[in-house]
Amino acid sequence: xxVSYKELGLVNTKEMFKKAFEGKFAVPAYNFNNMEQLxxxxxxxxxxxxPFILQVSSGARKYANQTLLRYMAQGAAELLKELxxxxxxxxxxxxxxTLELCKSCIDTGFSSVMIDGSHHSFEKNIxxxxxxxxxxHERDVTVEGELGVLAGIExxxxxxxxVYTQPDxxxxxxxxxxxxxxxxxxxxxxxxxxxxxxxxxxxxEGVLVPPPLRFDILEEIEKRIPGFPIVLHGAxxxxxxxxxMINSNGGALKDAVGIPAEQLxxxxxxxxxxxxxxxxxRLAMTGVIRKVFAEKPAEFDPRKxxxxxxxxxxxxxxxxxxxxxxxxGKGKLIFG
Length: 336
Ligand code: G3H
Ligand code: 13P
Ligand code: ZN
Prior knowledge:
This protein is globular. 46% of the residues lie in helices and 15% in strands. Helix 6 (122-137) packs parallel to helix 7. The protein has a single domain, classed as Aldolase class I (TIM Barrel), CATH 3.20.20. The strands form 3 sheets. Strands 1-2-3-4-5-8-11-12 form an 8-stranded parallel beta barrel, surrounded by 9 helices. It has a two-stranded antiparallel ribbon with strand order 6-7. A two-stranded antiparallel sheet has the order 9-10. Strand 1 (27-31), helix 2 and strand 2 (52-57) form a beta-alpha-beta unit. The chain is an alpha/beta fold. The chain has helices at residues 14-23, 35-47, 58-64, 66-83, 99-106, 122-137, 167-177, 215-224, 240-247, 261-268, 279-295, 302-325, 331-335; strands at 27-31, 52-57, 89-96, 112-115, 142-147, 152-154, 157-159, 181-184, 201-202, 208-209, 230-232, 272-277. The structure holds glyceraldehyde-3-phosphate, 1,3-dihydroxyacetonephosphate and zinc ion. 1,3-dihydroxyacetonephosphate (13P) binds at residues 31, 94-95, 190-191, 233-236, 276-280. Glyceraldehyde-3-phosphate is lined by residues 31, 57, 59-60, 94-95, 154-155, 190, 278.
Protein backbone atom coordinates (compact mmCIF):
# COMPACT_ATOMS: atom_id res chain seq x y z
CA UNK A 1 0.00 0.00 0.00
CA UNK A 2 1.30 3.48 -0.89
CA VAL A 3 2.48 5.66 1.97
CA SER A 4 3.16 9.41 1.82
CA TYR A 5 6.31 10.84 3.39
CA LYS A 6 4.06 13.20 5.30
CA GLU A 7 2.63 10.29 7.30
CA LEU A 8 6.20 9.39 8.27
CA GLY A 9 6.95 12.90 9.56
CA LEU A 10 9.42 13.72 6.78
CA VAL A 11 9.74 16.89 4.69
CA ASN A 12 10.56 17.62 1.06
CA THR A 13 13.57 19.81 0.22
CA LYS A 14 11.74 23.04 -0.64
CA GLU A 15 12.06 24.95 2.63
CA MET A 16 15.57 23.63 3.37
CA PHE A 17 16.87 24.86 0.04
CA LYS A 18 15.16 28.25 0.36
CA LYS A 19 16.83 28.82 3.72
CA ALA A 20 20.15 27.40 2.50
CA PHE A 21 20.15 29.79 -0.44
CA GLU A 22 19.27 32.82 1.68
CA GLY A 23 21.64 31.81 4.50
CA LYS A 24 24.57 30.90 2.21
CA PHE A 25 25.01 27.38 3.53
CA ALA A 26 24.44 23.92 2.01
CA VAL A 27 22.31 21.03 3.26
CA PRO A 28 24.33 17.80 3.54
CA ALA A 29 23.07 14.72 1.71
CA TYR A 30 24.58 11.60 3.27
CA ASN A 31 24.15 8.15 1.68
CA PHE A 32 23.28 5.16 3.83
CA ASN A 33 23.08 1.39 3.30
CA ASN A 34 23.00 -0.01 6.83
CA MET A 35 22.04 0.63 10.44
CA GLU A 36 25.38 2.01 11.63
CA GLN A 37 25.51 4.62 8.86
CA LEU A 38 21.91 5.59 9.61
CA UNK A 39 22.64 5.93 13.34
CA UNK A 40 25.69 8.10 12.65
CA UNK A 41 23.81 10.40 10.27
CA UNK A 42 20.78 10.86 12.53
CA UNK A 43 22.70 11.33 15.78
CA UNK A 44 25.40 13.50 14.15
CA UNK A 45 22.86 15.83 12.53
CA UNK A 46 20.64 15.89 15.63
CA UNK A 47 23.60 16.91 17.82
CA UNK A 48 24.80 19.56 15.40
CA UNK A 49 21.19 20.70 14.76
CA UNK A 50 21.70 20.42 11.01
CA PRO A 51 18.96 19.89 8.44
CA PHE A 52 19.89 16.85 6.37
CA ILE A 53 18.97 14.62 3.47
CA LEU A 54 19.09 10.86 3.90
CA GLN A 55 20.15 9.57 0.57
CA VAL A 56 19.44 6.11 -0.87
CA SER A 57 20.87 4.85 -4.16
CA SER A 58 19.17 2.08 -6.12
CA GLY A 59 22.16 -0.09 -5.13
CA ALA A 60 21.46 0.67 -1.46
CA ARG A 61 17.83 -0.22 -1.99
CA LYS A 62 18.81 -3.58 -3.42
CA TYR A 63 21.41 -4.16 -0.70
CA ALA A 64 19.26 -3.32 2.32
CA ASN A 65 15.89 -4.44 0.90
CA GLN A 66 13.40 -1.75 -0.05
CA THR A 67 10.82 -2.72 2.56
CA LEU A 68 13.32 -2.83 5.40
CA LEU A 69 14.86 0.42 4.24
CA ARG A 70 11.54 2.23 4.33
CA TYR A 71 10.99 1.17 7.95
CA MET A 72 14.57 2.10 8.83
CA ALA A 73 13.89 5.63 7.55
CA GLN A 74 10.64 5.65 9.51
CA GLY A 75 12.58 4.52 12.59
CA ALA A 76 15.09 7.31 11.98
CA ALA A 77 12.24 9.85 12.00
CA GLU A 78 11.04 8.50 15.36
CA LEU A 79 14.56 8.55 16.84
CA LEU A 80 15.06 12.11 15.63
CA LYS A 81 11.89 13.22 17.46
CA GLU A 82 13.52 12.01 20.70
CA LEU A 83 16.93 13.54 19.99
CA UNK A 84 15.99 16.89 18.47
CA UNK A 85 12.21 17.36 18.36
CA UNK A 86 12.05 20.31 15.95
CA UNK A 87 14.45 18.84 13.36
CA UNK A 88 13.19 17.15 10.16
CA UNK A 89 14.88 15.41 7.24
CA UNK A 90 14.17 14.51 3.63
CA UNK A 91 14.40 10.93 2.33
CA UNK A 92 15.87 11.15 -1.15
CA UNK A 93 16.46 8.74 -4.04
CA UNK A 94 20.01 9.24 -5.32
CA UNK A 95 20.61 8.81 -9.08
CA UNK A 96 17.21 7.41 -9.99
CA UNK A 97 17.40 6.22 -13.58
CA THR A 98 13.82 5.35 -14.53
CA LEU A 99 10.33 6.75 -14.03
CA GLU A 100 9.28 3.41 -12.48
CA LEU A 101 12.00 3.55 -9.81
CA CYS A 102 11.11 7.14 -8.92
CA LYS A 103 7.40 6.24 -8.66
CA SER A 104 8.17 3.24 -6.48
CA CYS A 105 10.22 5.37 -4.08
CA ILE A 106 7.58 8.12 -3.96
CA ASP A 107 4.93 5.48 -3.19
CA THR A 108 6.99 4.08 -0.32
CA GLY A 109 7.62 7.31 1.58
CA PHE A 110 10.43 9.16 -0.18
CA SER A 111 9.98 12.94 0.01
CA SER A 112 12.42 13.75 -2.78
CA VAL A 113 13.83 11.96 -5.82
CA MET A 114 16.64 12.50 -8.27
CA ILE A 115 16.05 11.54 -11.86
CA ASP A 116 19.46 11.37 -13.46
CA GLY A 117 18.93 11.66 -17.19
CA SER A 118 22.38 13.14 -17.71
CA HIS A 119 23.54 10.17 -19.79
CA HIS A 120 20.69 10.67 -22.27
CA SER A 121 20.40 13.29 -25.01
CA PHE A 122 19.27 16.75 -23.86
CA GLU A 123 15.76 16.17 -25.30
CA LYS A 124 15.36 12.71 -23.72
CA ASN A 125 16.65 14.06 -20.39
CA ILE A 126 13.99 16.81 -20.50
CA UNK A 127 11.22 14.36 -21.39
CA UNK A 128 12.11 11.81 -18.70
CA UNK A 129 12.61 14.46 -16.04
CA UNK A 130 9.29 16.12 -16.89
CA UNK A 131 7.46 12.80 -16.47
CA UNK A 132 8.98 12.30 -13.01
CA UNK A 133 8.17 15.90 -12.01
CA UNK A 134 4.53 15.41 -13.03
CA UNK A 135 4.12 12.33 -10.81
CA UNK A 136 6.14 13.80 -7.93
CA HIS A 137 4.55 17.24 -7.78
CA GLU A 138 1.05 15.77 -7.60
CA ARG A 139 2.27 14.26 -4.31
CA ASP A 140 4.26 17.31 -3.12
CA VAL A 141 7.56 15.45 -3.62
CA THR A 142 10.54 17.49 -4.83
CA VAL A 143 12.69 16.49 -7.82
CA GLU A 144 16.39 16.93 -8.59
CA GLY A 145 17.52 16.76 -12.21
CA GLU A 146 21.03 16.67 -13.66
CA LEU A 147 22.77 18.36 -16.57
CA GLY A 148 26.36 17.54 -17.47
CA VAL A 149 28.20 14.30 -16.71
CA LEU A 150 30.47 13.62 -13.74
CA ALA A 151 33.42 11.32 -14.23
CA GLY A 152 33.45 8.16 -12.10
CA ILE A 153 30.93 5.53 -11.12
CA GLU A 154 27.24 6.23 -10.53
CA UNK A 155 25.68 2.89 -9.66
CA UNK A 156 26.09 0.84 -12.84
CA UNK A 157 27.04 3.75 -15.09
CA UNK A 158 30.74 4.53 -15.49
CA UNK A 159 31.83 7.75 -17.22
CA UNK A 160 35.52 8.01 -18.08
CA UNK A 161 35.53 11.78 -18.51
CA UNK A 162 33.42 14.57 -17.09
CA VAL A 163 31.37 16.79 -19.36
CA TYR A 164 30.84 20.20 -17.78
CA THR A 165 27.31 21.55 -17.61
CA GLN A 166 26.60 24.00 -20.45
CA PRO A 167 25.21 27.23 -18.96
CA ASP A 168 23.25 27.75 -22.20
CA UNK A 169 21.18 24.62 -21.43
CA UNK A 170 20.05 25.28 -17.88
CA UNK A 171 17.26 27.81 -18.38
CA UNK A 172 15.41 25.69 -20.93
CA UNK A 173 15.91 22.53 -18.84
CA UNK A 174 14.58 24.08 -15.63
CA UNK A 175 11.65 25.75 -17.39
CA UNK A 176 10.56 22.75 -19.44
CA UNK A 177 10.97 20.10 -16.74
CA UNK A 178 9.74 22.00 -13.65
CA UNK A 179 12.50 20.48 -11.47
CA UNK A 180 13.10 21.86 -7.98
CA UNK A 181 16.90 21.65 -8.01
CA UNK A 182 19.65 20.99 -10.52
CA UNK A 183 22.81 18.87 -10.16
CA UNK A 184 25.67 20.26 -12.22
CA UNK A 185 29.12 19.14 -13.34
CA UNK A 186 31.92 21.63 -12.56
CA UNK A 187 34.85 19.30 -11.87
CA UNK A 188 33.71 17.02 -9.04
CA UNK A 189 33.37 13.26 -9.58
CA UNK A 190 32.24 10.18 -7.69
CA UNK A 191 34.42 7.88 -5.61
CA UNK A 192 37.83 8.17 -3.93
CA UNK A 193 39.93 8.76 -7.05
CA UNK A 194 38.58 12.03 -8.35
CA UNK A 195 41.78 13.23 -9.99
CA UNK A 196 44.88 11.54 -11.37
CA UNK A 197 48.23 12.64 -9.91
CA UNK A 198 49.04 14.12 -13.33
CA UNK A 199 46.12 16.56 -12.93
CA UNK A 200 47.40 17.68 -9.49
CA UNK A 201 50.29 19.71 -8.11
CA UNK A 202 52.11 18.89 -4.85
CA UNK A 203 52.11 21.30 -1.90
CA UNK A 204 55.06 21.85 0.48
CA GLU A 205 54.09 18.75 2.50
CA GLY A 206 54.03 16.61 -0.64
CA VAL A 207 50.22 16.31 -0.60
CA LEU A 208 48.48 16.18 -4.02
CA VAL A 209 46.42 19.34 -4.65
CA PRO A 210 43.73 19.02 -7.34
CA PRO A 211 42.78 21.71 -9.86
CA PRO A 212 40.05 24.08 -8.56
CA LEU A 213 36.40 23.54 -9.39
CA ARG A 214 35.02 25.55 -12.33
CA PHE A 215 33.41 28.34 -10.33
CA ASP A 216 33.27 30.38 -13.53
CA ILE A 217 30.73 27.88 -14.94
CA LEU A 218 28.77 27.93 -11.68
CA GLU A 219 28.58 31.75 -11.82
CA GLU A 220 27.35 31.63 -15.42
CA ILE A 221 24.67 29.12 -14.39
CA GLU A 222 23.61 31.31 -11.46
CA LYS A 223 23.12 34.23 -13.85
CA ARG A 224 20.85 32.16 -16.11
CA ILE A 225 18.65 30.79 -13.29
CA PRO A 226 18.91 33.32 -10.42
CA GLY A 227 17.93 31.98 -7.00
CA PHE A 228 17.61 28.39 -8.21
CA PRO A 229 19.02 25.63 -5.91
CA ILE A 230 22.11 23.92 -7.31
CA VAL A 231 23.37 20.48 -6.21
CA LEU A 232 26.97 19.28 -6.07
CA HIS A 233 27.55 15.54 -6.40
CA GLY A 234 30.91 13.84 -5.92
CA ALA A 235 31.83 16.26 -3.14
CA UNK A 236 33.82 14.06 -0.76
CA UNK A 237 37.17 15.48 0.34
CA UNK A 238 38.83 12.02 0.55
CA UNK A 239 40.44 13.05 3.81
CA UNK A 240 44.13 12.00 3.91
CA UNK A 241 43.84 10.89 7.57
CA UNK A 242 41.43 8.09 6.56
CA UNK A 243 43.34 7.12 3.42
CA UNK A 244 46.48 6.81 5.57
CA MET A 245 44.59 4.79 8.20
CA ILE A 246 43.37 2.39 5.51
CA ASN A 247 46.74 2.03 3.80
CA SER A 248 48.72 1.63 7.02
CA ASN A 249 46.41 -1.19 8.08
CA GLY A 250 46.67 -3.39 5.03
CA GLY A 251 44.62 -1.34 2.55
CA ALA A 252 45.66 -0.43 -0.98
CA LEU A 253 44.05 2.89 -1.94
CA LYS A 254 46.27 4.46 -4.58
CA ASP A 255 46.24 8.12 -5.58
CA ALA A 256 43.02 8.90 -3.72
CA VAL A 257 42.35 12.65 -4.08
CA GLY A 258 39.14 14.54 -3.29
CA ILE A 259 37.68 18.06 -3.20
CA PRO A 260 39.46 20.35 -0.71
CA ALA A 261 37.27 21.69 2.11
CA GLU A 262 37.88 25.36 1.11
CA GLN A 263 36.37 24.67 -2.31
CA LEU A 264 33.28 23.18 -0.69
CA UNK A 265 32.98 26.13 1.70
CA UNK A 266 33.03 28.47 -1.28
CA UNK A 267 30.40 26.35 -3.07
CA UNK A 268 28.17 26.23 0.04
CA UNK A 269 28.17 30.04 0.19
CA UNK A 270 26.94 30.21 -3.43
CA UNK A 271 23.75 28.88 -5.06
CA UNK A 272 24.85 25.35 -4.13
CA UNK A 273 22.19 24.29 -1.62
CA UNK A 274 22.88 20.52 -1.42
CA UNK A 275 26.25 18.77 -1.16
CA UNK A 276 26.45 14.97 -1.60
CA UNK A 277 28.85 12.99 0.56
CA UNK A 278 29.18 9.21 0.41
CA UNK A 279 32.83 8.22 -0.15
CA UNK A 280 34.16 10.11 2.90
CA UNK A 281 31.84 8.11 5.13
CA ARG A 282 32.93 4.85 3.51
CA LEU A 283 36.59 5.78 4.00
CA ALA A 284 36.12 6.75 7.66
CA MET A 285 34.33 3.49 8.49
CA THR A 286 36.76 1.33 6.52
CA GLY A 287 39.79 3.02 8.11
CA VAL A 288 38.55 2.36 11.63
CA ILE A 289 37.46 -1.22 10.90
CA ARG A 290 40.87 -2.02 9.37
CA LYS A 291 42.61 -0.49 12.41
CA VAL A 292 40.55 -2.58 14.86
CA PHE A 293 41.23 -5.73 12.85
CA ALA A 294 44.97 -4.98 12.74
CA GLU A 295 45.24 -4.12 16.43
CA LYS A 296 42.85 -6.76 17.80
CA PRO A 297 43.05 -9.78 15.49
CA ALA A 298 41.15 -11.96 17.97
CA GLU A 299 38.10 -9.66 17.95
CA PHE A 300 35.02 -11.19 16.34
CA ASP A 301 32.08 -9.27 17.84
CA PRO A 302 30.76 -7.01 15.02
CA ARG A 303 29.80 -4.39 17.60
CA LYS A 304 33.47 -4.00 18.52
CA UNK A 305 34.45 -2.84 15.03
CA UNK A 306 31.18 -1.46 13.65
CA UNK A 307 30.65 0.59 16.85
CA UNK A 308 33.95 2.53 16.58
CA UNK A 309 33.39 2.89 12.80
CA UNK A 310 29.97 4.41 13.49
CA UNK A 311 31.51 6.80 16.07
CA UNK A 312 34.11 7.95 13.52
CA UNK A 313 31.40 8.55 10.91
CA UNK A 314 29.32 10.54 13.39
CA UNK A 315 32.33 12.72 14.31
CA UNK A 316 33.05 13.26 10.62
CA UNK A 317 29.44 14.32 9.97
CA UNK A 318 29.46 16.82 12.84
CA UNK A 319 32.75 18.28 11.55
CA UNK A 320 31.40 18.56 7.97
CA UNK A 321 28.17 20.24 9.11
CA UNK A 322 30.04 22.63 11.39
CA UNK A 323 33.24 23.47 9.54
CA UNK A 324 32.48 22.92 5.84
CA UNK A 325 28.79 23.15 4.87
CA UNK A 326 27.73 25.69 7.49
CA UNK A 327 24.50 23.76 8.14
CA UNK A 328 25.12 23.19 11.87
CA GLY A 329 22.70 25.13 14.07
CA LYS A 330 20.35 25.82 11.14
CA GLY A 331 17.70 23.27 12.21
CA LYS A 332 16.03 25.80 14.50
CA LEU A 333 16.10 28.44 11.75
CA ILE A 334 14.21 26.16 9.34
CA PHE A 335 11.96 24.06 11.54
CA GLY A 336 12.04 25.73 14.97
O1 G3H B 1 26.67 8.47 -6.53
C1 G3H B 1 26.83 7.36 -6.04
C2 G3H B 1 26.67 7.15 -4.58
O2 G3H B 1 27.92 7.28 -3.94
C3 G3H B 1 26.00 5.84 -4.30
O3 G3H B 1 26.85 4.77 -4.53
O4 G3H B 1 25.50 3.30 -6.03
O5 G3H B 1 27.46 2.41 -4.75
O6 G3H B 1 25.35 3.00 -3.57
P1 G3H B 1 26.24 3.27 -4.75
P1 13P C 1 31.27 11.10 -3.33
O1 13P C 1 31.65 9.84 -4.00
O2 13P C 1 32.26 12.20 -3.62
O3 13P C 1 31.05 10.95 -1.87
O4 13P C 1 29.87 11.59 -3.97
C1 13P C 1 28.66 11.02 -3.55
C2 13P C 1 27.52 11.38 -4.42
O5 13P C 1 27.56 12.27 -5.24
C3 13P C 1 26.28 10.61 -4.24
O6 13P C 1 25.32 10.93 -5.19
ZN1 ZN D 1 26.08 11.43 -7.11
